[in-house]
């Protein structure tokens, strides 16, 4: 036990998510739809920080943030103001970021929340210390790795985009738990319809990690929940390695290099910033009334936990399946659209859980990045139910659908995959299989396993298209006939 505690890993996360459903930035009316746009086109004196330009708070952003705070079980502050977080960096044209602060008389938008995550069938409470609003800095573009790039380009289209910052206590004990937490957070924010995690850079994460009660190291620039597990695993390995060699883990901030999959020193303790926080007096204090909170509560959509329960009771699918589907809003929506088209929730759930998810996982794809639609999946399941194709062919066709978006029937016709249900055709193939395997036929008279072998041979001959029941029946009939005649 002692060594388990000594090796204890403590991880706290600081997550920045863009409120991607907002049409405009946090403090000006510039469009927030910056992806794929020419650099530095969606800017104005406010997001450029021209002296004299005055920020105006986006009310919808407060609404969304309050919604998130309620879903994260937080206490919402009734009166607060913004702070200037001062630092000089090329991504910040004003030389300060408008943010919130929990000292010097400041309070964040919300505090003291929590989220439950399920790890190995155990419920675990992860405390959330604060949730606040702040503006996104601009985007720095490097040529290759950050420490080798000959120059830095800066695009201010992103400067001023509304960010929701969520900070957890160090309650996570493994990289996997961190990933599960992020996934759950993403699902909640997507269910609230304030966030689309499929957008590049919409969710970014910094992590504090310490092992065995040692020094805390901060890792910055983790770009998605897919990366978090990798980045943390690397950092834990690095720290353990230092400890084993009897070296000290330095207090520092490190940068996650996604391409090389390593963390690099960004700055040491001596270089830590003093942000000289002070109130942003260009903005009036925000007062959040109970009426406002109640109004937000009234428009809150169904949250993941309620949806999981509904999936179990309404569709009668296993809890595990419900949890996996709802962990990703796109998957859960896809499932419900399928069920609407064809009321076979169990079959639809099974196809999604096994073949569809496996394909997406193996190809590192998210559902919306693939070409499959609910209509596709439903048509394929119907073809199986109607006996047009076998389940085996279904498994073959599915990746083709996902990849190309072609209709199942089209693939089946073009590739000649329709199930062979004609007795005549199958009998001919059985003749051939029997002729090619005389020894097996003899063994099959007494050995059940060899009967299966013969069925397998027939399936192979038909490339899996034979109706398995009929194939079995014909082979057994043939064997009976041989038996009746007596051994040759
Ligand atoms: Zn602007
Ligand atoms: Mn921040």
What is the β-strand count? 16
Number of helices: 17
End-to-end Cα distance, whole Å, is 71 Å
| Attached small molecules | zinc ion, manganese (II) ion
Oligomer: single chain
Task: Describe the SSE topology.
Blueprint lengths: L1 H5 L2 E10 L26 H4 L10 H13 L3 E2 L2 E2 L2 E4 L9 E4 L10 E10 L2 E14 L3 E4 L9 E4 L6 E7 L6 H17 L11 E9 L5 E6 L2 H20 L7 E6 L4 E7 L9 E2 L6 E2 L2 H9 L5 H12 L3 H8 L2 H13 L3 H18 L11 H12 L5 H14 L3 H7 L8 H14 L1 H7 L3 H14 L6 H18 L3
Parallel strand pairs: 12-13
Antiparallel strand pairs: 1-10, 1-11, 2-6, 3-16, 4-5, 4-15, 6-7, 7-10, 8-9, 11-12, 13-14
Bound molecules: zinc ion and manganese (II) ion.
Zinc ion binds next to helix 2.
What report would you give on this structure?
With 488 residues, the chain is α+β, with helices and mostly antiparallel strands. It has three domains: 2-295, no CATH class; 302-414, no CATH class; 423-484, Arc Repressor Mutant, subunit A, CATH 1.10.10. The protein has 17 helices and 16 strands. It has helices at residues 2-6, 45-48, 59-71, 175-191, 225-244, 290-298, 304-315, 319-326, 329-341, 345-362, 374-385, 391-404, 408-414, 423-436, 438-444, 448-461, 468-485, and strands spanning 9-18, 75-76, 79-80, 83-86, 96-99, 110-119, 122-135, 139-142, 152-155, 162-168, 203-211, 217-222, 252-257, 262-268, 278-279, 286-287. The strands form four sheets. Strands 2-6-7-10-1-11-12-13-14 form a nine-stranded mixed sheet. A three-stranded antiparallel sheet has the order 5-4-15, with no helix packed on it. Helix 5 (225-244) links the parallel strand 12 and strand 13. Helix 9 (329-341) packs antiparallel against helix 10, helix 9 (329-341) packs across helix 11 and helix 11 (374-385) packs antiparallel against helix 12. The mean pLDDT is 90. Bound molecules: zinc ion and manganese (II) ion. The site of manganese (II) ion has 3 residues, from loops.
């Amino acid at each position: 036990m002692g060594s388990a505690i000594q090796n204890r890993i403590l991880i706290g996360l600081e997550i920045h998510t863009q409120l991607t459903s907002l049409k405009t930035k946090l403090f000006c009316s510039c469009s927030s739809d910056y992806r794929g746009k020419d650099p530095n086109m969606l800017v104005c004196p406010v997001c450029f920080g021209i002296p004299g330009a005055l920020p105006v708070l986006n009310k919808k952003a407060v609404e969304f943030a309050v919604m998130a705070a309620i879903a994260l079980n937080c206490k919402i502050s009734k009166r607060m103001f913004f702070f200037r977080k001062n630092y000089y960096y090329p991504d910040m044209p004003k030389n300060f970021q408008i943010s919130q602060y929990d000292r010097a008389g400041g309070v964040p938008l919300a505090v003291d929340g929590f989220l439950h995550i399920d790890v190995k069938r155990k419920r675990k409470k992860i405390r959330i210390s604060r949730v606040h609003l702040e503006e996104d800095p601009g985007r720095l573009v490097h040529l290759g790795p950050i420490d080798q790039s000959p120059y830095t380009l800066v695009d201010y289209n992103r400067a001023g985009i509304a960010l929701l910052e969520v900070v957890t206590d160090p309650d996570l004990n493994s990289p996997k738990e961190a990933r599960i937490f992020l996934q759950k957070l993403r699902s909640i924010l997507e269910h609230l319809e304030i966030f689309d995690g499929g957008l590049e850079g919409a969710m970014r994460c910094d992590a504090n990690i310490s092992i065995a009660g040692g020094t805390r190291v901060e890792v910055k620039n983790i770009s998605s929940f897919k990366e978090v597990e990798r980045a943390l695993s690397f950092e834990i390995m690095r720290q353990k390695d230092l400890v084993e060699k009897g070296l000290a883990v330095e207090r520092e901030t490190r940068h996650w290099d996604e391409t090389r999959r390593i963390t690099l020193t960004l700055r040491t303790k001596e270089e830590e910033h003093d942000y000289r926080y002070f109130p942003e007096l260009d903005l009036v204090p925000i007062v959040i009334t109970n009426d406002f909170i109640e109004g937000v509560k009234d428009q809150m959509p169904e949250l993941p936990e309620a949806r999981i329960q509904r999936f179990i009771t309404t569709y009668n699918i296993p809890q595990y399946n419900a949890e996996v589907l709802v962990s990703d809003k796109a998957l859960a929506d896809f499932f419900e659209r399928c069920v609407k088209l064809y009321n076979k929730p169990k079959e639809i759930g099974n196809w999604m859980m096994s073949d569809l998810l496996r394909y997406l996982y193996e190809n590192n794809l998210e559902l919306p990045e693939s070409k499959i639609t609910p209509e596709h999946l439903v048509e394929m399941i119907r073809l199986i139910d109607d006996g047009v194709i076998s389940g085996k062919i279904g498994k073959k066709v599915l990746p083709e659908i996902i990849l190309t978006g072609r209709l199942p029937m089209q693939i089946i016709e073009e590739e000649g995959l329709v199930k062979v249900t004609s007795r005549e055709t199958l009998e001919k193939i059985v003749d051939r299989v029997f002729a090619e395997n005389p020894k097996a036929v003899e063994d099959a008279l007494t050995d059940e396993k060899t009967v299966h072998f013969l069925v397998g041979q027939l399936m192979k001959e038909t490339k899996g298209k034979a109706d398995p029941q009929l194939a079995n029946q014909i082979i057994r009939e043939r064997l009976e006939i041989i038996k009746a005649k007596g051994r040759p």
